[in-house]
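Contributing: when you submit paired examples, paste them exactly as shown. First protein:
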Amino acid sequence: MKDLLNLLKKTGIFSQLTGEELEILAGNSELREYGSEETVFETGDPASELFVVSSGEVSVSRITEEGKSLQLARLIEGDMFGELEFFQREAHNASAKAGANGSTVLLQFPKEGLNFQDLLSAYPAISARILHAFISLIAGRIRRTNNLITDNSPVIQELKRQVYGDTLTGLFNKTYLDEQLHTFLKNPGEPVSLLMIKPDNFKWINDNCGHDAGDETIRVLAGAYAEELGERGTAVRYMGNEFAFVFPSLDRNGAHETARRLQELVGSLDLSAVTGSGDFRLTASVGIAVFPLHARDAAALIAEAHELPLLGRARGGGKILFPEDKEAAGGS
């Protein structure tokens, strides 16, 4: 009985009960010993008890659609499990078994042969306090989960960095532009310019200096672009040596002027440390698509701008093109 009382006192939903109430609870609980890897319950079993680990450990797992066992949790001394299904009177949605290293002892409430509904009727005050503690426990879990998944939480920021970050440059990647550009396009009355820039003669670096030199050049470009943009726009390494820039509130004329400055920036870069020669200079072509002038959704806006730098290179390089320049030999 003493072991039961000590364990109940340490368990969250029982810790606020009085000594007398804990003794009643202990009298309706029991300690059960399980052998190595012995099953506690299976998926689909009725949840007629809740458990607390007294000693040893418990593995909770579920079978995936592929038929493989997926471990959801490893529980140790003091951990409670099965309580959610128990209080909701649902079947278990996972299986639990004792650990593989020796025996495991679990507190089981209520003990074998007792029904929780009967205990509710026999001890309404205790039952009400336990249920209130359970509701508080669940509410606390929800609050912690909500805090965990807020946009500004460190966990979510790290996940976003991994999903949307380009490992070579530290800029955003193609996935970011494909999935998040739509968030910039909420007001049809406010222009958003998408610029996509690609060096015309980048192949010379890869062919003559190697792909490591090509990667280093991409890093140099990324650093220069980020410094030039500051807080005015969002820079993305889109594909290979092609970069994209999103500029809220920038109209057609402003986008053209920005593209011209970016071309000048590319042409001014000193790549002698990469190429071994101070004579080589990059040139670049830029494609521009403006929302809602050229497209009214993100995918279409990207499609309009993405093909233009290659077209600019085919026309001799150093071009700034809009979608309307595709048919005629236009552009600047």
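Second protein:
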Amino acid sequence: MSFKTKFFRIANPITKNFSFEKFFGSLPFDNLILVYHLVSDEDVKHVKHLFPYRSVRQFEKDLDFLSKHFEFVNWEDYLNQKKTSKPKLLLTFDDGYSEFYNIISPILLRKGIFAINFINPKFIDNKELMWRNKASLLVSEINENNNYKNKISNFSGLGDNLETNISSILKINYENRNQLNEIADFLNIDFNDYLKTNPVYLTTEQLIKLKKDGFGIASHGWDHPLYNQLSLEQQIDNTQKSLDYMMDNQFLNDSFAFPFTDHLLTEQFFDLIFKQNSDLKFTFGAAGLKLDSYSKNIQRIPIETKNYSAEEILKNEIIYYQVLKMLGKNTIKRS
């Protein structure tokens, strides 16, 4: 458990007893960027073991709270630093899940709120299931099927303890992602069949419609790698391939959001990717309220943290930032 997670667990029972106005004056920036993944009232097998997603009711409650205290802006207004009477807020989503088209965009259009969806081009049109989604789906299927529970113990490298086996599956990393295919084959689980009956990602047609409706479509890496497990050359290639897709399809090629985290990314990477892409304005991490020594890399606030509401998360982020500032650790320093 990270220090930040421990801090939130201790702080939240205290901060939830005070109104947001008590914290608002300590907000360190007048521009905030939030990041969600999906919203659903359903049991989403390919996501449920990865992060806690919002229900429709919870999402609308978040938006109503945020609208009271912030002014939602679109990408152009964010770039131009539009003057607003309240702090500006840019809403973003990651991974290009189909729920953005079916559930989220109708809500945002009704409320007049813009958002950018950072997508992985490799998975658009449901050509393949992303490796982390494969892990979650495998765990869901094993938990729901006694035959799978018994059979998985015979897979090479796993044992008789179901909880340990599930943990091992969820820990499989990008480099070893083919192990997920091997486990699926061993259990006779077909990821392609799942995609045919459960469209996980947005389609090209939906992306075009979302663009016409005013939403932004931008890059999240080609196939959702963990960047600090890649070589510098691999980092650049994965990023460039996804930015080229944006250019070829006339989506946004002036922004990029790192999948997972930008932890341990060096100045050399940023220098190279900005040099190669003259239209690129900003890249985005997801470390919460923090400064970054590389000025063009901006940190977003993850909202799907345990079951905290947007209000609770922002209160805790504000307090956490002030603590880090006192310790001189409120800035991510790149080597």
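If you have annotations for the second protein, write them as plain sentences, like these:
The first helix runs from residue 3 to 15.
The two ends are 25 Å apart (CA to CA).
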